[in-house]
Amino acid sequence: MKALMFGWEFPPHILGGLGTASYGLTRGMSLQPDMEIVFVIPKPWGDEDQSFLQITGACNVPIVWHDVQMDYVKRRIGKYMDPQKYYDYRNHIYADFSYRHVNDLGCINFSGRYPDNLLEEINNYSIVAGVIARTEPFDIIHAHDWLTYPAGIHAKTVSGKPLVIHVHATDYDRSRGNVNPDVYGIEKNGMDHADHIITVSDLTRRTVIERYHQSPFKVTTVHNAVEPLSPDILSIPDKKGVKDKVITFLGRITMQKGPEYFVEAAAKVLAKAPDTRFVMAGSGDMMDQMIRLAAERDISDRFHFTGFMKGKQVYEVLKASDVYVMPSVSEPFGISPLEAMQCGVPSIISKQSGCAEILNYAVKVDYWDIDAMADAMYAIISYPAMHKFLQEEGRKEVDNIKWEYAGQKIRRIYDQVVNR
């Protein structure tokens, strides 16, 4: 079975949970001996792990025919792709795109991020998908999140192969219901064209069925999982045990993630436990607002705003924490509590998160109930027996939530769709 996958991020260059999930899922699927994956991203950086899949950068796929020598191609893109692939793709350019702005190789440049002209990049990505789909042999198309749905639809149109889309989040989650009509239109179109839809939680599945009017028979939940900790991460020293207890929020500081509820609960905890410290790790459009809110509540001296963190930095913060809190207003899944529990950090999560469906040893509260959130924080830092119980049982629980199992579920979906 060979899958042509379209994604937008891949580690180590990630800007959110999408890249982490894409890596874990493809790695878990690669454990199936007959599974091959070509994973397309807008722009590779050359340091991605390609030991278990083939990464193709849309920025290295020509859409305009240029007469260039192999030596020059090798010099320009040899770090990212087999130069022969460039010529294979060039032979499958399917239309006159000479009016598009391309570079000296006839390729479109991509930022590899989420630029202001994101809709233009999504459209460009779908043009490149047509060339790739005409070149690569594959059995099924798998498109991750709304950014890649147009590419998946185009690949399906030119190849006639079935399309599976993977809903990691919807605009209802990102906007608290204030939906962007352009984004909704892309999401709805992707779902309508898909032969099957995978959602990361039952919460998201209900949204897809009710808000996007999809048949329940077409939508299957495959919960996310977590990668086993590497020796590099395991070797990070555990910094807990200082006098002050540390309670951490880690994620985008946006309205979807409920950062204001974390700050309000923190103020209540500090009224009873003044030696507690709070870390808000991440960046986002509400960061300045949260700094001001901490000042208004007169708790700025107990708050640390670290900015965006990734890779090893995330685990250094987790290993210095006594409690992890994810107060998301609407969280399709939420991998970060699983990562915290792997590190032995008891976690408090909102009942409005997808991971709440599979975690039994995390404390669950409504995101808006700051009294319950504060009580849970205070209890975990005040009662060593409770902390130890959640630490030990939580670690055991997440050690059994594996990407390999998620990959097996997706393979069963592939088999059903291909054989239909």
Give a topology summary:
Blueprint: E1 2-6, H1 17-29, E2 36-41, E3 54-57, H2 70-77, H3 83-90, H4 118-135, E4 140-144, H5 149-159, E5 163-167, H6 171-175, H7 181-193, E6 196-199, H8 202-211, E7 219-221, H9 231-234, E8 245-250, H10 259-272, E9 276-281, H11 287-296, E10 303-307, H12 312-318, E11 323-326, H13 336-342, E12 347-350, E13 363-365, H14 370-382, H15 384-399, H16 403-419
Parallel strand pairs: 1-2, 1-4, 2-3, 4-5, 5-6, 6-7, 8-9, 8-11, 9-10, 11-12, 12-13
Helix pairs in contact: 1-16, 4-5, 5-7, 10-14, 13-15
What does this structure look like?
The protein has 420 residues and is of the alpha/beta class. The chain has 2 domains: 2-225 and 403-419, Rossmann fold; 231-399, Rossmann fold (3-Layer(aba) Sandwich). 41% of the residues lie in helices and 14% in strands. It has 16 helices and 13 strands. The chain has helices at residues 17-29, 70-77, 83-90, 118-135, 149-159, 171-175, 181-193, 202-211, 231-234, 259-272, 287-296, 312-318, 336-342, 370-382, 384-399, 403-419; strands spanning 2-6, 36-41, 54-57, 140-144, 163-167, 196-199, 219-221, 245-250, 276-281, 303-307, 323-326, 347-350, 363-365. A 7-stranded parallel β-sheet has the order 3-2-1-4-5-6-7, with helices on both faces. Strands 10-9-8-11-12-13 form a 6-stranded parallel β-sheet, with helices on both faces. The longest helix has 18 residues, at 118-135.
